[in-house]
Amino acid sequence: MNMNMLSRSKKLVSSVFKSSGLLEQTGVFRSISSIPKSRDSLCLPRRFTSSLSSCPHWHHVSARHLDTKRFYSEMCSESSDSKSSTGLFQEVSHEMDCDSSSLSQRSSETFTLDVLVSLLRQENAVDICVIKVPEQIKYTENFIVVSGVSPRHLRAMALYAIKVYKFLKKDGARNVKIQGKDAEDWMCIDFGNMVVHFMLPETREVYELEKLWTLRMYDEQLMSMPTETLPEDFIYDVEVTK
Amino acid sequence: MAFPLLSKSLTGLLVESSSIIHRRTFSVSAVAAAIQKMTRVRVVDNSSLGNTPYHRPPRVIHVYTKNGVGKVGDKVLLAIKGQKKKALIVGHKMPGERMSPRFDSNNVVLIEDNGNPTGTRIKVPIPTHLRKVEGDYAKVLAIASSFV
């Protein structure tokens, strides 16, 4: 089991170092590396592809494999890269050590927009659209529309988002459920300050939510709706006072 | 024909002063229950089923609650154009909570059996306390254009 992990992470590590510009992301590493060991069960079902592209993938791996320092020193010696890379490793492993010791505190990372978008990217979501809703509309702060390949893909993305949210939430935060679970082409999750909609591309074409939420009043479908006028014989009701 | 428009804009204030006053031939009472069986409702989305004229207004034939009274956020069954359709109540004439909006018409949004809205846009203001009610209302809020 150990050797398996070693070989897998070696592949990932080498591909990571090939990509340039990784060193300036140490700031991000520091924040992510505080993920405690109990995250392993979460990372286990995720696919470990050797073609590493996005950073969050690496984060999951690092959370999984940075438990033992001895393990890490082996990797350091094997990688024949420059000193800066080993320096990076030591820094990350050091972070993990001092954070894994304080396992009583939960991960200091909250379920922000960045976390959601990164996990959507990791899930190979098609066409992620994040819209910042202006303050006047007192509905939510961020409105996200995501497409998926198939209904099963949408369901998997939604369930994974819920899983990550449950893991990262604090005790005061409300529980979040998937709305529209029996509709296979459109599912929503309402996280307080963000709302995510998982739709199939056909459904997305029909509703055009991005158009509505970006052009608020100037949306085409809204303008093509005929303006309603009261009928001529409309009578108002008896005024209700309470 | 400016008088009906005028009376519309000066709600309740100067209605009596317009020369074209329509007198009812029947008496009306204030709203007692919100939405129940046989109430006539107003469909507020842009679905074709809700907007095509028909000689009978859409009526509620069943309310999916424990008691037969429907408030904002309850599902009802409508009879529209000779067919049955599920709908969601988004506003009623009956006064509800103290600081929640009261509408001048019983508004309803048509939905499918799986919860997807039939229309794609809603022009009428939708109450925001719909968000806190337990149920699947994010879709209806997503196609709404204004909130109250």
Could you characterize the architecture of this molecule?
- Chain B: It is found in: Mitochondrion.
- Chain B: Belongs to the universal ribosomal protein uL14 family.
- Chain B: This is Large ribosomal subunit protein uL14m.
- Chain A is an alpha+beta fold and 242 residues long.
- Chain A has a single domain, classed as Beta Polymerase, domain 2.
- Chain A is built from 11 helices and 5 strands.
- Chain A has a 5-stranded mixed β-sheet with strand order 1-2-5-4-3.
- In chain A, a hairpin with a 6-residue loop joins strand 3 and strand 4 (186-191).
- In chain A, helix 5 (69-78) runs antiparallel to helix 6 (83-101).
- The radius of gyration of chain A is 24 Å and the shape is globular.
- With 148 residues, chain B is an alpha+beta fold.
- Chain B has one domain: Ribosomal protein L14/L23 (Ribosomal Protein L14), CATH 2.40.150.
- Chain B has 3 helices and 5 strands.
- Chain B has a 5-stranded mixed β-sheet.
- In chain B, strand 3 (75-80) and strand 4 form a beta hairpin.
- The longest helix of chain B has 8 residues, at 2-9.
- Chain B starts with a helix and ends in a 6-residue tail after the last helix.
- The chains are: A alpha+beta (242), B alpha+beta (148).
Provide the descriptors you would attach to this structure in a database record:
heterodimer; A: 242 residues; alpha+beta; Beta Polymerase, domain 2; 11 helices; 5 strands; B: 148 residues; Ribosomal Protein L14; 5-stranded mixed β-sheet; 3 helices; globular; disordered N terminus; Iojap/RsfS/C7orf30 (chain A); ribosomal large subunit binding (chain A); mitochondrion (chain A); Mitochondrial assembly of ribosomal large subunit protein 1 (chain A)
What's the layout of helices and strands?
The complex is a heterodimer of chains A (242) and B (148).
Chain A (H helix, E strand, L loop, with lengths): L1 H17 L7 H7 L7 H4 L11 H11 L3 H10 L4 H19 L11 H10 L3 E7 L9 E6 L3 H18 L9 E2 L6 E6 L2 E6 L1 H7 L1 H6 L5 H5 L18
Parallel strand pairs in A: 2-5
Antiparallel strand pairs in A: 1-2, 3-4, 4-5
Chain B lengths: L1 H8 L32 E2 L4 H4 L7 E5 L11 E6 L2 E9 L15 E5 L26 H5 L6
Parallel strand pairs in B: 1-5
Antiparallel strand pairs in B: 2-3, 3-4, 4-5
Organism (chain B): Perca flavescens (American yellow perch)
Protein name (chain B): Large ribosomal subunit protein uL14m
Subcellular location (chain B): Mitochondrion
